[in-house]
Amino acid sequence: MKYISKLISAAAGLLWLASAIPSHAEDAPAWKEQSSTGLIPLSAMSASDKYKGEDGGLYGGGRNVPPDAQRAAALKASQQITPLDAQGHPSPAGRIGFISLGMSNTAGEFTVFKEIADRDPRKSPAVEIVNCAVGGAGVHSWTQADSGVWSKSLEALKQGNLTPEQVEVAWIKHAEPMPEEDQSVLEYAKKIRTDIATAIRITKAKFPNLKIAYLSSRTYGGYNAAGRRRVNPEPFAYETAFAVRWVIEDQINGQAHNFDPAKGAVQAPVLLWGPYLWADGIKPRKGDGLAWLRSDFGQDGVHPTRDQGAVKVARLLLEFCASDPTASRWFVKR
Question: How many domains does the chain have?
Answer without folding.
Answer: 1
